[in-house]
Amino acid sequence: MINVLFAASDADWRTYEAALNAAFAKARLAIDLSRSHAPKEASYIVYAPSGSLQDFSPFTDCKAVLSLWAGVERIVGNQTLTQPLARMVDPSMVQGMMEYVVAQVLRHHLGMDRYLRGQDGVWQQGEMPPVAQDNPITMLGLGELGRAAGLALASLGFPVRGWSRSPRKVAGIDCYHGEAGLGDALKGTGGIVLLLPSTTETENILNARSLALPAKGAFVVNPGRGTLIDDSALLSALKSGQIGGATLDVFRTEPLPEGHPYWSNPKVTVTPHIAAFTRPGSACGVIAENIRRSEAGEPLLYLVDRGRGY
Amino acid sequence: MINVLFAASDADWRTYEAALNAAFAKARLAIDLSRSHAPKEASYIVYAPSGSLQDFSPFTDCKAVLSLWAGVERIVGNQTLTQPLARMVDPSMVQGMMEYVVAQVLRHHLGMDRYLRGQDGVWQQGEMPPVAQDNPITMLGLGELGRAAGLALASLGFPVRGWSRSPRKVAGIDCYHGEAGLGDALKGTGGIVLLLPSTTETENILNARSLALPAKGAFVVNPGRGTLIDDSALLSALKSGQIGGATLDVFRTEPLPEGHPYWSNPKVTVTPHIAAFTRPGSACGVIAENIRRSEAGEPLLYLVDRGRGY
Q: Of B95, B113, B156, which is closest to A132 when you measure between CB atoms?
């Protein structure tokens, strides 16, 4: 019997308990899943920052901490965490994120808001949009989520540029990397999609300088992390028309406060952190697979590099 | 020198004159393009219903009528037209239509209107949408436009069903045909996209009976022809909730009259016939290629079958 401690909120327990046990059974793992294992007796921790666990040092026999969340910025800097940490990469979340990104990119690309907001009985055609082939899109971030969304956009005909901190090769995406590559990735682009992790290097990566590089009227879609954008620089770029519109799903403070200027800016669409839902059934399969791998001596999926921070 | 008569509106002449001559030069065709060739001297007619030409009988040496429009319902029944007739299938129009269809399908699939209309400072997540894999989409019409849009949706993960009057096979699309196949194509589907030609057989293909077949709350996207929908049946299905939303680009009367119930129905999005623009440069290449083919004795592209009506 393998003891797995569930360290997340009451609400998460209600969501995940049955789904985790079903996934363990399906993977033929004999697991005692509980919220009250003694620290020395827990072989694994299923973790989310929604719970109260802060000190990992008593968990001396813990083989891995398995995050229920894709973003690990709230745990990766925890000095008491010496155990291996795995992020959540839920296949249905990757799919959902891709759908959200393609939907928002096409909406901005086609200028659909003109019609969605104009149900006023006046028949008036807008500008003819470019075809996808004439409107390059830049993905900042080429992890699982950025790659999936970028490849979907490329399959629809968009020229797709991708940028990551360290070099990556993705067939069908024109790849750039590092400080030096960021300018080339952004210069003259028609739209920017942010799918980077939140680290000290990526904070405010969209700022007054980088927002000046795209084609005039380019759009921004941020389903990544709120810290990636210098909010006042984006509001200025929207005001000047350098950026034509933005759809933002994540913010420095969530829920986005009621009086925040993003809510009332007609060029900004706020979505309430719904770009990608983690689906319990699918996510629990990933947790079970990682326990199976660990027990079999195989490498964990989605292991976090503590130095890089993701 | 080949005489080509341009028979469309003044506005069309301004749009197409230079683009046609450029396409003819590129195809190395020596052509005298004019609006005033005598009927007996015209070898080809470039045609749109926007002009005044109604009687094709004096054009005794005309080898083909080349339509600038994709839809030919306003000319195909003309008894004086005995010359071969070719529809316009502009590659950039196929691309634009695909983009429009994917944008609208994803918007309905993800329930985006909840967020687009709700920029009111209230942070409220809607229902978790299904992933594409769990939401089948039915394409009514598997011509160039229906195939391109259907394959794009399939590449994003949607199970795609296609229906056409006569049997078709398209890899990646579950194909149905004829009266008998229509019910199977629609039963339990999550969304319907209409890309059929306007013929007596397709008139009101979406009616009270067929609208009862999809899953409750399914959506309708019509960038095809206004005659495909029984408007009062659609309004009833929207009222009952059987159909959850509709995005309509084409109507029996265009512009859609200001007082039409579609404008004020919150479940309906009206777009003003913008799903697919014909791009002059791209379309003129098709006209030039058809003249080249005709002169070389090769079969015309997109030849209309007068019996079928498209």
A: B95
